[in-house]
Amino acid sequence: MTIAQAMKSTAQTALRSGPGSSQRGQPAWGGGSLSRISAIARNAFREAVRDRVLYNLVLFVLLLTGAAIFIGALSGGQERKIIVDLGLSAMLLFGVFIAIFVGVGLVYKEIERRTVYAIFAKPVGRGEFLIGKYLGLCLTLLVNVMVMGAGVSIALLYVSGGWDPLALRIWPAVLLIYVQLMILTGVALLFSSFSSPALSALLTFFVFIIGHFSADLKSLAGTMGSTGARWLFGGLYYLLPNLANYNFITPAAHGQLPAATHAAAAILYAFLYVAVIIATATLIFRRRNFK
Amino acid sequence: MLLDHKVRDRNTRDVRLVLTIMLGLLSVFGLSHWIDSHRPAADPNVEEERLYLTSNTAKRMSLGFNGLAADWYWMRSLQYVGRKIINHPEDIQLDDLGPLNLKLLAPLLDTATTLDPNFMEPYEYAAVVLPAVNVEDAIRITKKGIAANPGAWNLYQHLGYIYWQQQDFKTAGEVYSQGAKLPGAPSWMEAMKARMAFQGGSRNTAREIYLRMYEQAGDDQVRNMARLRLMQLDSLEERDALRTVLKAYQTRTSRCPASWREIEGVLRAMRVPMDASGSPVDPAGTPYLLVKESCNADLDRNSKVPYQ
Question: Chain B partners of A177 at a C-beta cutoff of 8 Å?
Answer without folding.
Answer: none
